[in-house]
């Protein structure tokens, strides 16, 4: 979706800025914004499309298999004979899901803008430094969640700017896999606070001991 000439032009600008000392890549800021597609919601169809792969699912099953091997057990895939939907790697076929597809622009996706409005759009997942220089962009259909698109963008950032120490992102990127990946690389994730999504429990005061004095 981004032409080679655009990438080269952006790389030239970033190199010139870095040579003059304008880039500050210690902290990387990641966010996404939607780009409305030239497509009408009335021109749509329901089609079966390959499900977007999640890298953390594959790596999770790899860790499970290593742990089972350490304890002398069969691998997860062998136990399921490749028929379980678990990793989905042994079947040789991509899992299909039914989605709403634009007949005018099949590459875009349905983006939910607020609670009631939805449009066909793309999403530009962008990383920049504190001076607003764009360091990397990954464009996806509008129905791809931020956390799913993060890996491709972050791979590019780690390749070109390995010196960064902090990743600042909104709560859409605060998933266990993204936290694990950033922290294990020796970097810090800065994100917004999110409330616990579990059932209501006991009040906090029941765990506190108050001094009677």
Mind explaining what this structure looks like?
- With 213 residues, the chain is α/β, with parallel strands linked by helices.
- The protein has five helices and eight strands; from the N terminus they run αββααββββαβαβ.
- The chain has a domain at 4-53 and 94-192: Nucleotidyltransferase, domain 5, CATH 3.30.420.
- The strands form two sheets. Strands 1, 4, 5, 6, 7 and 8 form a six-stranded mixed sheet that branches. The protein has a two-stranded antiparallel ribbon with strand order 2-3.
- The longest helix is centred in the N-terminal third of the chain and has 16 residues, at 4-19.
- The N and C termini lie far apart (68 Å).
- The model is unreliable at 81-91 (pLDDT under 50).
Which secondary structure elements does this structure contain, and how are they paired or packed?
Layout: H1 4-19, E1 27-36, E2 44-50, H2 55-70, H3 76-80, E3 96-102, E4 109-113, E5 117-128, E6 134-141, H4 146-160, E7 166-169, H5 176-184, E8 188-190
Parallel strand pairs: 1-7, 7-8
Antiparallel strand pairs: 1-5, 2-3, 4-5, 5-6
Percent of residues in helices comes to: 25-40%
- How would you spell out the order of helices and strands? HEEHHEEEEHEHE
Unreliable residue runs: 81-91
Largest sheet: 6 strands, mixed
Q: Look at the helices and sheets and give the structural class.
A: alpha/beta
Radius of gyration: 22 Å
Strand content: 25-35%
C-alpha end-to-end distance: 68 Å
* Molecular shape: globular
Under the CATH scheme, which class of the domain at 4-53 and 94-192? Alpha Beta
* Count of individual helical segments: 5
CATH topology of the domain at 4-53 and 94-192: Nucleotidyltransferase, domain 5
Number of strands: 8
Using the 3D structure, state the CATH architecture of the domain at 4-53 and 94-192.
2-Layer Sandwich
Mean pLDDT: 82
